[in-house]
Amino acid sequence: MRRFLYELSESWKIAASQMRSNLTRSALTALGVIIGIVAVTLMGTAIGGIQVGFDKSMSIFGDDVLYVGQWPWRKVDDWWNYRDRKKIKTEYADALNRMIAMTPNSNLMIAIPTSSVIRSVKYADSEVSNVLVRGTVSDYIITSTFDFKEGRFFNDLESRGGANVCVVGYDVADALFPSASPIDKSVLINGQPFKIVGVIARQGSFLGLFSLDSIVVMPLPAFQKYFTAKSEADILVKVKDKTKLAEAKDELGGLMRRVRGLPPEKKDDFSINEQQALKSTLDPIKNSIAVAGLFITGLSLFVGAIGIMNITFVSVKERTKEIGTRKALGARRRTILLQFLIESTALCLLGGIIGLGFAFAMCFLIGIAFPSFPTQFSTGLVVISMVVSVMTGLISGFAPAWTASRLDPVTALRYE
Amino acid sequence: MVTSTRPVGPLVIDIENITKDYVMGEETVHALRGVSLQIHKTEYIAIMGPSGSGKSTLMNMLGCLDTPTSGRYEFNGKNVAEMNDDELAAIRNREIGFVFQTFNLLPRSTSLRNVELPLIYAGIDPDTREEMATHVLHEVGLGDRMNHKPNELSGGQRQRVAVARALVNKPSIILADEPTGNLDSKTGEEIMALFEDLYQRGNTIILVTHERDIAVHARRTVHLRDGLIETDHAGFIPELDLVALERP
Ligand SMILES: Nc1ncnc2c1ncn2[C@@H]1O[C@H](COP(=O)(O)OP(=O)(O)O)[C@@H](O)[C@H]1O
Ligand SMILES: [Mg+2]
Questions:
Q1: Average pLDDT over residues A373-399
Q2: Residue A374 — pLDDT band, cuts 50, 70, 90?
Q3: Which helix (H) or strand (E) holds A167?
Q4: Theoretical Cys-Cys bridge with A396: which of A308, B29, B91, B98, CB 3.0 to 4.6 Å?
């Protein structure tokens, strides 16, 4: 063991002096690995970020909330069967709540109606367009996962009375009130003034596709009065125990059939959705993005590895006579093998460390430039990329190092 | 009959009927055709012969760098054919000191580092290594050139570094294959004076050369021709060698 450590440290010294004396070549070779590691690390970071963003986006839906809607949250091949379904109405929520109240040991807690449109929101000379304007009841807060930056949600009284109050998302508040507090200010939507009672804390975007902060929430009666006469809706139902989601879903299905007055022979003409279903629809997409990304960036590392192998072969060729001399002076095969392996590994590790440094800096800069871009730099990634560099060095250096160690001393000495 | 000018030590090298063939495509070169030789400790032998007579082949065999096609080789009483690669490396490291015609120094290392090389393979710790290397460099008269790289040294000095490297592990024998071949005659004589000095201090030396002026320094001369030992005398006999060289 001590002998091995001795050989290791001596080989390291030889490798270090070799790299120093071939600085340009070493640098160029390491560059291949640097690029590979940067690519792999950044991709790993992005995938980590996508994962985190994905989970975060999913958590918006809550894992204890069922969503009653016209459409299922998955790809359907027979969309025409869903298109002609009767719309879901806000009144269903009241009917459901009555039935829940009458059901002993119900798995369901409460049904919340929501109805949404896209509108512009104005304040003074500023305007934000494409804002999701949602009407709902004060109990909506129970099903939601957001926090308040300031203010509060509208109360039961305001909710029932259909007062002209609203809660705004972070982006809306930020755009219309860059410096002052928006609380108690009135914004104009469809020409109607709504007094702001609360600002929702930043929620980010859903899968990076659209902002969850470009939203205004108001009491349902007010919403229906000013935005739509129709009472099309999505109904959110919070369950009591999220471990009994399946039972809750069955129960809700039964209640909805009663609400809709469906005879037993008819199929459901509504869909009950949940976070998990959406997740399992999107998971394979996410995973294939990850695999494809890692594969493509892995290729660049592979190219780097080929570079190392190539350079080690050249190095062995160039130093054939030196290898012969070393053997004549008593170097064993494994000593020669170790020397070249360490050389290629050190080169890769060096490239890996530099690459990681670059990747780290780039992540940092990307984080500053595009705060919404999901990047996730972890210690696990550091460890993995170091292991990958060392493995790359060992694997790509092995063939040339093996060749060197097997060289016949006489042939090597005669080599010119 | 082998005689010597002084009492010799124990048998170091004992080869019997060694042959070496090189197969090159269709052709087979018989580099050695059955060579027998016994070399004792503290001998100083010159191996002579025209170019292509098999001197280097024999030398590589003696130095355990190459294996014979047939024949028996015992080094210090041990059969070389039965040794594995690591044992051969150990023999080359501890028992044999090589001096090459082309010096074969590591170009980017200083004299000191070059001389330390065999000690590294012997697993000697850095401090002792440096001490030993410094000592032999002084012995070969390069005490003031220890931190010079080969390209900062003259040919003679380079060969001195190589000799120091061969000596540093206190080997049983020193094998020098045309050590003066790349040097002018004056520098060559200086190297030969160094070998004489080493011999006087009890080292065993095997010297390959095709130059009579060099061979005269040895105490025993072996003539090779076409892979066979032609003559093997104590001392150097110029007349005989002249005849040997002039033969067609
Ligand atoms: N590796 C080899 N492959 C083929 N032939 C060789 C090899 N080494 C030596 N020979 C041949 O063996 C013979 C003896 O060579 P060598 O021992 O180098 O002679 P010397 O050193 O006396 O000049 C020569 O004919 C040479 O061409
Ligand atoms: Mg020769």
A1: 83
A2: low
A3: strand A165-168
A4: A308
User: Minimal CA–CA distance to A45: which of A304, A366, A279?
Assistant: A366
Residue A103 near residue A239 (C-beta atoms within 8 A): no
Backbone angles phi and psi of A266, in degrees to 5: -85, 145
Higher per-residue confidence, B114 vs A213: B114
Atom of ligand 1 nearest to the CA of B55: 22
CB B64 within 8 A of CB B238: no
Closest CA to B73 of B61, B86, B55: B61
Tokens at B144, concatenated: 């003031």
Residues touching ligand 1 (Cβ under 6 Å) are B 22, 24, 29, 31, 49, 51-57
Across all residues in chain A, what is the average pLDDT? Answer: 87
Which stretches within A87-233 are classed as H helix? 91-102, 140-143, 156-161, 170-176, 220-226
d(CA A177, CA B146): 78
Domain boundaries, chain B: 42-68+85-246
Q: What is the ipTM of this complex?
A: 0.91
User: Which amino acid belongs to residue A198?
Assistant: G
Q: Read off the pLDDT of residues A313-324 as tens digits, 9 standing for 90 and up.
A: 898 999 999 999
**Which residue has the CA at smallest separation from atom 11 of ligand 1?**
B31
**Does residue B205 have a pLDDT over 90?**
yes
- Backbone φ and ψ for A217, nearest 5 degrees, come out as -115, 135
Query: Are A213 and A176 contacting, i.e. CB atoms less than 8 angstroms apart?
Result: no
CB count within 10 Å of CB A37 equals 30
Per-residue pLDDT of A213-265, as tens digits, reads: 899 999 999 998 888 767 678 899 999 888 888 889 899 999 999 888 888 88
Residue nearest to atom 25 of ligand 1 (CA): B52
Dihedrals phi, psi of A82, to nearest 5 degrees = -95, -30
- E strands, B55-196, are 70-75, 78-79, 96-99, 173-177
Q: Among residues A328, A5, A334, which one has the least CA distance to residue B123?
A: A5
- For the cut 50, the answer to whether the pLDDT of residue B248 exceeds it is no
Arithmetic mean of pLDDT, A6-20: 85
B42-68+85-246: which CATH topology?
Rossmann fold (3.40.50)
Q: How many CB pairs under 8 A join A and B?
A: 63
Q: What is the dihedral of CA A27, A31, A32, A35, to 10 degrees?
A: 170
Partner residue facing A328 (CB), from B92, B94, B169: B92
Q: Where are the domains of chain A?
A: 2-57+281-414, 109-240
Tell me: the pLDDT tens digits for B218-246? 999 999 999 999 999 887 655 444 444 44
